[in-house]
Amino acid sequence: MNHWIIVPVLLPAVTAALIVLAMRSDIELARVFSVAANALLLPVAGALLWAASTGDPQVYFLGNWPAPFGIVLVLDRLSALMVGLTAAMSLMVQLYAMGSGWDARGRHFHALWQFQLMGVNGAFLTGDAFNLFVFFEILLIASYGLMIHAGGGARVRAGVQYVAYNLLGSTLFLFALATLYGVTGTLNIADMAGRVAELPEGDAALLRVGAVLLLLVFAVKGALVPLQFWLPATYARAPGPVAALFAIMTKVGAYAVIRFYTLVFPPDTPATGGLYADLILPAALATLAIGMIGVLGAATVGRLAAFAAVGSMGTLFLAVAPATPQATAAALYYLVHSTLAGALLFLVADLVIARRGSGTLAEVRPPLAQGGMIAALWFAAGIATAGMPPLSGFLGKLLVLDALAGRPDTGLLWAAILVTSLIAIVGFARAGSTLFWKAHEGGAAPEALPPVRALPVVAAVALIGMIALQTVLAGPIMDWLAATAEQVHDGSAYVAANRLTYGED
Amino acid sequence: MSLALIAALPFLGALLPGLMIRAGRNACAIAAGSATLLALTGLLLHAPAVFRGEVLHTRIAWLPQLGLDANFVLDGLGLLFAGLILGIGLLIILYARFYLAKSDPMGQFYTYLMLFQGAMTGIVLSDNILLLLIFWELTSLSSFLLIGYWKHLPEGRQGARMALTVTGMGGLAMIAGMLILGQIAGSYDLSVILTKGPEIQASEWYLTALVLILLGCFTKSAQFPFHFWLPHAMAAPTPVSAYLHSATMVKAGLFLMARLWPVLAGTEEWFALVASAGLITMVLGAVIGLYKNDLKALLAFSTVSHLGLITMLLGFGTEAAAVVAVFHIINHATFKAALFMAAGIVDHEAHTRDIRRLGGLRRLMPVTFAIVAVAALSMAGIPPLNGFLSKEMMLEEAFETVWFGLPWLLPALATLGATFSVAYSFRLVAHVFLGPVRDDYPHRPHDPGFGMWAAPAFLAGLVVLIGLLPMTLTGDLVRVVAGAVTGGTAYVNIYHWHGFVPALFMSLAAVGGGLVLLGLHGPLARAWDNAPRPEAKVIFDAIVEPAARLARGFTDALHDGAFTRYAAIFTVAVVAAGAWAFAGGGHVPGARETTPVTPVPAVGWLLLVTCAALLATMHRDRLVSLVLIGVVGLTVALTFAYFSAPDLALTQILVEVATVVLMLLALNFLPKRTPVESSGVRRLRDGAIAAAAGLGAAALAYALMLRDFAFPTISDYHLANAKDLGGGTNVVNVILVDFRGYDTYGEILVLAIGALVIFALTEALLRGPAARRLLARVPDQAKAGDRHPMMLVVATRLALPFVLMVGIYLFLRGHNEPGGGFIAGLLVAIGVLIQYMASGLAWAEARQRADWHAVIAVGALIAAAGGIGSFLADRPFLTSSFGYVTIPPFEKFELATAMVFDLGVFLVVVGVVLLILSSLSRIGIRAGETVNVAPMDIDPSAPRGKER
């Protein structure tokens, strides 16, 4: 029995409870334990990655109930990847939160952070559709708390919309689950896959409704147009490090789509067929366009970063839509990249806002103290986000373009990706020019501020380092991801690991 | 030296200047120079091999899955360009050391310059077109930084953005072109692609790829119609202009056209596109250049013109033309870089670059004059300088080429271009250096120190030497390079006297015409200034600025923050997608019998419908809405009870009670009515959308309930095994704490987090500016005379112990009868809740001893411990076991480990409700809610209106 599988859920959950119990009034103590727990997640995630890479998927039968009757956790390459990515990224962002002092500006930051990690990890690891809903709830409610951390009128107002919109999503999730259960009679994802494949023709219509509702739920999470409306204000108003952590939240949506699309509703299923592709592809194109146009038109640094996040989801979903192993491998590479780059961009945006006193791009402010360093970070974040060389965004984009070659609509898709890249480049250049160059116009000297504390910069640089590593090691990483995509698309190992039983047990 | 290392050295060198600037400006320049010199040395060591005809390779696997590898190649073409980039780079580093002012951040400058140098070296050494793309984009990025180096100058910033936009656009087009090229050739390796010429030219995608790649080349090399960005990039410091915009970056497009010449050139499309663009650019650039008064602008347009000339030669697609192109690349690099540096010297010394304010510098700056004279005469094509040689050869090629079926057209236009070229070259010399010495220079100029003029003087020397001994100095080089371009062996013979051939007369005509143009410059310039013509910057701004405004308007209009609209779009999307999905699949309606309508469900149904309808119309009155929501909730609870689900019914009732009471409390701090914010039309629209969604949901539920499962459901298993395997007869509870205990674990944490969030929000609220508003709030309703009716107070206090007892009872029996930790927790919490209601927030809060944070945390920990305990038995999380024990005097009863977990659930639920309650009461207490000491707040016996 490999109990390690559940550690990414239990470790943050227990840490959060301990922080609430004993450390809620001592921020230093909470910091120590929170960072320690997050740091401990790294080797655990590493071990899980190793286990997933070297063997078949492993299943953890909660309560020792056989599948499909109880809840299972499934560790395969994909879930291990997502857990590892979360652990690595969140540690850096957490260090930033501490270094910048954001965590001390309200109550319960670290407890909520840990609960957030628990929710995200649980969503990645679960092999049960309803349990996925539960963990969506956990990560959502924790994110509500983190989003309105430190309060403030504009932030709380955006937070209320965030809550309300996601309540719509949660309600829809229940409709979707009820429909799918009503048709298949099961909640275990592997079991559902088998039943969907054998479904009588007369149930196809209802199944398709369930499948589409589920896709829309994930589309809310993944900010797919027209369900992206919650994202810009939320991300722009959230505290910087929280917005950075949220870079993984949109990926939960993408992950869930990949999981259900490849396992339960693959394109060769008679009932659903090209259902997902037909919806995802146009939505992804619109997402990409609206996101990158938003980058060009953003009035504040925060909104620029938020729309960049929307745009990157468009690119990601474009690579998800074809549902071929090659495209999925490219999607996963881009997913890892855009998570790191998105987090980096929000951290740098926060550095800018903290130094400049305002994130507005409409007016010119005096030059920033230590502007050179922050400008360099901005440049790196911009390159990473817009997908320019030499960072992995460019490789990711090439991989996505390559994966979309040879289709009837290749021209349109390539044009969309490349044109929006240009729009994003112009947007970033304009913003950077306003922030860092125009400020020198009047010859004003930078306001004398104490130097930026080291920890936030170290955290941002560490994220850049991770992106650089993903660039340099692109070959081995793509080998690994190609194998992952194969496993995801094959699905038989995933189902077999569930050891589904139907008899009297 | 490995080719990869040669390409990497400038990048490594880019790290140094930023640090070495701390050791002084000389150390900074030397550091940058050393890295360049090292790379140049490494390159030159390979030169003998290349001259022997060898092609050197370095291969490093990077991303073979994509076909992207760090493969480098060195042949003649690469050698020439890398030599130019590194050699001129070295001169520029020297020159910039003396050019930059003390106040300029030199470390940054050299860092950017080295980054650029590395990117350029990478382009010309790449053997993989994807790798080449990476370096290509890097040149765009690093040149963006270099052009914008003087960040206080608006021209610099705008020029930088324009250059980035235009070359970035070309770069992105080129990505698509290169990908197509690679797909056709089956490889992204140049060495492979160059062997696939026939396949590529036969492919139906050839034209697409060609156009896309040429977009990249033309934007980079400032070819018509993309020539406009280059002059604006001249806002950069002069070393940058000299390096990027004469010697290197703008030649990247030429390089690529030369590199891909064997596979792309030779077709009609190639000729039509490349030769035409080159020709137009050559003439246009020369014409515009003549009328520029800014020294650097003049040089910029002359660069555009010469790049056009080379492009045109490559476009001819013949080997002889390719040879000329190569030779002119060498010559242009020498004289143009020298001219740029000299222009920088003039600017540096005289503090102006405006030709109209200069003149007569010949005596004041003799060295500079000599350099400019040599270089400019070469540019004009005056023998015996090197510019003459390549221009003669160009005219010869032009003479032999037919354009648009008209044999005379191309030679005529080429001569026209050459004429203007002569004119602006002469003007450069005549209007800046000749004439009388003036007394109104902004700054009295004189020759700079040796350090500054050494580099241009060296280049001017090359101009003369190559001019005199072309074959000796460059013959082999041109042969090797041209061989690399054409993919064969090139025949090279460069000499001065070709006899009385047409080219000689064309050349003579150009010189004569140029002199005439110069003579007429005054009136011509006035006419030119008055003539209407498109101004590139205006057009560019007219595209980009409105585009940005449009983007902002579009984005802000779309995301206007109106939640009702977001929700409407959400609902429409869901309903439409659902309907579409349903229509696309087969549906056989279920065959289940519908149950007859009996009075009880009918009443319940009517109640629900009525409440929903009332809610839709009366929702602005918040208190009424809350009551209606409560009615809906209770009806749902009754429905559960009616359908024999006592657990659910109990839970639902308790949840309703707790939430309605908490919401009432919260409502206390809010206005009692919501303002009207939407028009009638909008409400009608929203009503229609809501109705569609409601009907859709009903239809879906109806369709689902009417049919039987195609497969056995997992709940059959739960029903069958709850008692034997789960140890409980209450299946709902066994599902909650055992079959799906993990879900419950998650859900109680959702509650716990919710309570923490509400607490944190209250805290933030009470510390923030909102607190003042909240605390200064005047209640909009009269206070009740008896906030705490004595009957209620007594009843609730008496009830508390009973409620607690019932709670414990419900908890204990939960596994087998309706009840369990969740229900018990809610009940106990409500027991306390009613104390708050009856006796007042302040009174109840003052008597709280428990710390609800701790209760929640302990509950969460107990629940986790209850699950983790099974690790000891090597069972998974939340595995329960149960047994039956008899402890006298009780009867035999069951003990299940699931009860530990359920205890955690109980504690969390209690803690959550009460933490929310206490958070809300804190607001009330801060707002002045006092502990009441008397049974009533007003004294009924006192005179009217007088409060106690």
Radius of gyration of chain A: 22 Å
| Shape estimate of chain B | elongated
What is the subunit organization of this protein?
heterodimer
Distance between the termini of chain A: 20 Å
**Tally of DSSP helical segments of chain B:** 39
User: How many beta-strand segments of chain A?
Assistant: 2
What is the N-to-C order of secondary-structure elements of chain A (H for helix, E for strand)? HHEEHHHHHHHHHHHHHHHHHH
* Percent range of helical residues of chain A: over 70%
Percent of sequence in beta strands of chain A: under 5%
- State which percent range the strand residues of chain B make up: under 5%
Number of helices of chain A: 20
Strand order of the largest sheet of chain B: 1-2
What is the average of the pLDDT values of chain A? 93
Distance between the termini of chain B: 97 Å
| Low-pLDDT stretches of chain B | none
Description:
The complex is a heterodimer of chains A (505) and B (948). With 505 residues, chain A is mostly helical. Chain A has a domain at 277-493. Chain A is built from 20 helices and 2 strands. Chain A has helices spanning 7-22, 27-54, 77-100, 109-125, 129-147, 153-184, 189-197, 204-221, 230-237, 240-245, 247-263, 275-297, 301-320, 325-356, 371-386, 392-403, 410-437, 454-472, 474-490, 492-497; strands at residues 58-61, 72-75. In chain A, helix 4 runs antiparallel to helix 5 and helix 14 runs antiparallel to helix 18. Chain A is globular, with a radius of gyration of 22 Å. Chain A starts with 6 loop residues before the first helix and ends in an 8-residue tail after the last helix. Chain B is mainly alpha-helical and 948 residues long. Among the domains of chain B are: 269-515, no CATH class; 729-948, no CATH class. Chain B contains 39 helices and 4 strands. In chain B, the strands form 2 sheets. In chain B, strands 1-2 form a two-stranded antiparallel ribbon. Chain B is elongated and about 125 Å long. Chains A and B meet through helix 1, helix 4, helix 5, helix 6 and helix 8 of A and strand 1, helix 5, helix 6, helix 25 and helix 26 of B.
